[in-house]
Structures are given as structure tokens and as C-alpha cells.
Specification:
Strand content: 15-25%
Number of strands: 6
Structural class: alpha+beta
Shape: elongated
Oligomer: single chain
Number of helices: 4
Distance between the termini: 47 Å
């Protein structure tokens, strides 16, 4: 029987609650989260557990940070990049984020971070595409126009990775403001 299972992630920025519920369902079947793995999670077969998972974002988490969650009943499970942290607790434990303000602050921090990462690629994408358009007007050789198009496409592809999470956090913040 397999002892390890890999499952894909739909993207924490987009489906945080759904992802945590999915991991909790696997835990009920005895598949416990061990760590992040590529674009998903590595689960290890173990004892069935009725637990919940919760996600938090904290740069450079220290012992005090982890102790705060442990005192509230949440055990640290794994982290990625010492920035994204998953905790687990028995079902019914008071959630990590219990009020609108702290949830808002959590998503605001992530939105700003993703925005800082996305901005240079957004600007370069726009610049390369504008240069490509002007190049197609016959102002520069076709090979240069093709170069600008290629660089614009590369920049756009890279922009997707921080840009889409930025938009997702922005939508979550808008939803929180309306509540």
C-alpha cells in the first residue's frame, strides 16, 4: 500500500478555504499533510484524524510567532519559503483569524507583496507591447519588432504568477469591505 500521495493545489490565493477543507477531508481518510510539494502537497499515510487546517502568511516567522499559534491550539505543519505557513488543530478549535479586521490585514499584506512582484513585469509587458506596435508601423526593422513581441510575451507569462494572486487578493478585500 502507498505511504505517500501527491495532490495538486488549485492555488492558495484563489481557493484558500477550499484547499484547507480538502486537506481536512484527506486527514479524515488518514492522509496527513507533510509538506508543500511543487504545485501541490505531499501527504503521508497515517492515523485518521478529525482536524482542520489553516493558512497564514508571515515573513520570517520566528519561535514567538509559532508559539502564539501553538498557545491557541494550532500546530505548525509546514511552511514554504518561510512565508506561507499551514497549521492544524482538532476540529472545533477557535480559528486563527476570528474577526474581519485581522483577515483584512492578512489579505492586504499579501496583496501588497504580490503587487510589488507584479509591477515590474506589468510595466515591462506594456512597454514591450507598445514598442512592438510602434515597430510594426515600420519605424524599426521587423527582427526588432519580433524581439519586442517575444520579450513582451515572456514578460506577460511571468506576470501571470504574481499578477493573478494579486487580483485574487484584491477581490477578497473588496468582498470583505462589502460585508
Amino acid at each position: 500500500m502507498k505511504k505517500v500521495k501527491y495532490i495538486p493545489s488549485g492555488g492558495l490565493a484563489f481557493f484558500e478555504e477550499k484547499e484547507m477543507k480538502k486537506l481536512a477531508e484527506y486527514a479524515k481518510e488518514g492522509w496527513l499533510l507533510e509538506k508543500f510539494a511543487g504545485l501541490g502537497y505531499k501527504l503521508r499515510k497515517g492515523e485518521r484524524k478529525d482536524i482542520e487546517y489553516s493558512l497564514d502568511y508571515q515573513k520570517e516567522a520566528d519561535v514567538e510567532y509559532l508559539a502564539f499559534f501553538e498557545a491557541a491550539g494550532w500546530s505548525h505543519v509546514c511552511s514554504v519559503g518561510n512565508e506561507i505557513h499551514i497549521f492544524s488543530a482538532p476540529t472545533g478549535t477557535k480559528p486563527i483569524y476570528t474577526d474581519r479586521l485581522t483577515t483584512f490585514e492578512k489579505y492586504e499584506r499579501e496583496k501588497k507583496q504580490m503587487g510589488k512582484a507584479a509591477l515590474p513585469f506589468f510595466i515591462s509587458t506594456v512597454v514591450f507591447w507598445l514598442l512592438s506596435v510602434f515597430s510594426n508601423l515600420g519605424w524599426v526593422p521587423e527582427s526588432i519588432a519580433n524581439l519586442f513581441q517575444g520579450l513582451g510575451m515572456i514578460s506577460l507569462i511571468i506576470l501571470i504568477f504574481p499578477g493573478l494572486p494579486y487580483l485574487s487578493y484584491q477581490l477578497k478585500l473588496l468582498k470583505l469591505r462589502k460585508e
